[in-house]
Amino acid sequence: MKKKTMSNTDYTLTGNTTSLSAWQFLREELKPKGRWLTPFNVISLPIMLAGLILIVIRFWKGIGSITNLTQEVPWGLWIGFDVVTGVAFAGGAYVITFMVYILNMKQYHSIVRVTVLNGFLAYVFYAGALLLDLGRPWNVINPIIGNSFGTSSVLFLVAWHFLLYMIAELIEFSPAVAEWLGARRARKILSGMTLGAVIFGITLSTLHQSGLGALFLMAKDKIHPLWYSEFIPIMFFVSSIFAGLSMVIFEGSVSHRVFSDQISEKKHIAHNKILHGLSKVCAVALFAYFTLNVLVFVHEKRWGLLNSPMGYWYLTEMIGFVLLPMVLFFVSYRKQNILLIRIASLVTMIGIIINRLNVTVIGFKWDAAQHYYPSWMEITVTLAVIFTEIWIFRWIITRMPVLRDSPAWAKEQS
Amino acid sequence: MSIDRRDFFKVLGVTGVTLATGKRLGAAPGMESRQEFYGMLYDSTRCAGCQGCEFACAEANGLPTPDLQDLPVAGIERKANETRRTVINAYSTSKGEMYLKRQCMHCNDPACAAACLTRAMYKTHDGSVIWRGDKCMGCRYCMVSCPFDVPKFEYFSANPKIEKCDMCYERIKEGKMPACAENCPTEAIIFGKRRELLAIARKRIHDNPGTYYDHIYGEHEAGGTGLLYLSAVPFEELGLKTTLQKSSYPALTKGFLYAVPSIFVLWPALLLGLQQATKDNNHNEEEDHE
Ligand code: SF4
Ligand code: SF4
């Protein structure tokens, strides 16, 4: 209660309580808040600027001018990391909304908003990264307006689901925007749409998380057999559960430090309990994922592949980044150790990056004479995309009731 | 392991499709049974490696004239790229130096077309697989999916095209042959109905048992291709992939795609049911919900 009043959530646009006009309000909100010369700004700004320049070059001179992509390896870091890995990390939103709205586990309610916001921004920016990778982005309209539906394409499905899911997440998040703007009626209507959006969103997520894996089903002869199986879609789906939750744990730990002024005492304490709960879910999901992997491994008789560099790499992934974090999550849950949870989530996240890159980049054409490595320019653009997302995230957090409590009137409504 | 995902998906799929849309998901345009595709038969034993087809192809498709110095040499794999749709390569084989022409295979059920979300890659009723620039968004998923690595992309253009052999689609429509087939002095490339070409190929193998390796590459590879190969030596000696599956590549994603409509029907119902069932469970925990 003490901290809440520092913010602007008690302004109302409709004007009876304060005299701010809509436009004054917006101008106020667009101004940066807080100090400018933070270490984060100092690092991120130059990279974002460099990224912008590189993007201009890319649209002017072609994709090859800043990437190392080849005729044999047409998808690199931007798809493998930005899109495929990024979307896995954004999976937290559907898992948390599932727990809160479908299983009615209300104890997780306080992290719904920030998770949904995170997921939404991830989709906006990673779908944005997809546009950077399109050679003829203006034709992206074709599969959307329907003058050319490639319904037999997995990518068609995935692209549409991205689009629809962004809308679902926007609806899920919209009450926070309404609270920020003081739009009481709108908030009421939008809150009423939450459950529908959640159900739709979970359905879409199931399909496109697995769809991202299904994208590679036709590349059967190009992906290393240790990572290729007809079960890739299921693997991608199951791993998106702990990928998303690890991101939630990681993001939550960072947010609670960086935005501590936004968070009430009560929520701080509740958060630790939330982390414990999530670590249990992660451990179980990792266990399911590991079992699946073992089953596929035995089923496809892959023993002979193990004794090779790629085989050792596979073992590293399975033991170091699936089995180990699983054990860590179990232990941290039993011992109620927050630090251990954070470490486990970090290891899991690294593991997800490795896994997604193994399927999409490292294991793709692993036997080719010439290997693909991302250029420094591809990496810079990727970092620029991530930083821009964090900037927008920060902008929203410091303005809308995401981490902090909703204004009193909103609580009365629900 | 007893989970058979394919069967599971199939059942789900059939129910789901009927439930949700009443319509089957886009079966690949024209399977062979329904249509008589054109194709080409390339007989490596007749090829002189003169590169006449390369020149004819470049001219017919407005591509740069091939470099006269760039001859096929055994041991060097020349590759098609965004400036050339077909290449002739030389190989030193167990039966001496042999040539092989590379180009798009014009698969019966092409992976590239199944991959394409804008239907820019498209199998025509003639059997040629063509690329349509007004639809393509340059995602390069066709390149990822093609088992023969055929589609090429203009990486250094602000308005990049996908470059690949289209079996001279326009010329076929005018009743002409593909430029390479027309200009081959030794008739190593012949053009015709795929069924007839297969018969010719079989006859050649049958009539000259000492000359040919007993296999028609493309009859079954990747579910059958429009381009058929004959050779004197096993095809791996000529750099062709012989480990490809015999069924079509798009079939690999069918299980997944069929499952989609059923998930769309089942999931929301299931979720709503769960939501109702757990509704009153947690009142003791509602600390956050004043
Ligand atoms: S060879 Fe490749 S590009 Fe040609 S039709 Fe088959 S899948 Fe398409
Ligand atoms: S690059 Fe063009 S032709 Fe190839 S799959 Fe994408 S949209 Fe289709």
Describe the structure.
The complex is a heterodimer of chains A (414) and B (290). Chain A contains 15 helices and no strands. Chain A is mainly alpha-helical. In chain A, 48% of the residues are buried. Chain A is 68% helix and 0% strand. In chain A, helix 5 packs across helix 7 and helix 10 crosses helix 13. Chain A is globular. The longest helix of chain A is centred in the last third of the chain and has 35 residues. The N terminus of chain A is likely disordered. Chain B is of the alpha+beta class and 290 residues long. Chain B has a domain of 155 residues: 2-Layer Sandwich (Alpha-Beta Plaits). Chain B is 30% helix and 13% strand. A 3-stranded mixed beta sheet of chain B has the order 8-1-9. A two-stranded antiparallel ribbon of chain B has the order 2-3. In chain B, helix 1 crosses helix 8. The N terminus and C terminus of chain B are likely disordered. Classes of the chains: A mainly alpha (414), B alpha+beta (290). Chains A and B meet through helix 2, helix 4, helix 7, helix 9 and helix 11 of A and helix 3, helix 4, strand 6 and helix 8 of B. The site of one iron/sulfur cluster has 13 residues of chain B, from helix 3.
Descriptive keywords:
heterodimer; A: 414 residues; mainly alpha; Formate dehydrogenase/DMSO reductase fold; B: 290 residues; alpha+beta; three-stranded mixed beta sheet; 8 helices; elongated; disordered N terminus; binds iron/sulfur cluster
Task: Tell me the layout of helices and strands.
The complex is a heterodimer of chains A (414) and B (290).
Chain A: H1 22-30, H2 39-61, H3 77-89, H4 92-102, H5 112-133, H6 142-145, H7 154-181, H8 184-192, H9 194-214, H10 232-258, H11 265-299, H12 309-335, H13 338-362, H14 376-397, H15 408-413
Helix pairs in contact in A: 2-14, 3-5, 3-13, 4-5, 4-9, 4-10, 5-7, 5-14, 7-8, 7-9, 9-10, 10-11, 10-13, 11-12, 12-13
Chain B: H1 5-20, E1 38-43, H2 52-60, E2 87-93, E3 96-102, H3 111-115, E4 121-123, E5 129-131, H4 141-145, E6 152-153, E7 162-163, H5 169-173, H6 179-183, E8 189-193, H7 194-207, E9 227-230, H8 251-278
One iron/sulfur cluster is lined by residues 115-116, 118, 120-121, 131, 136-142, 162 of chain B.
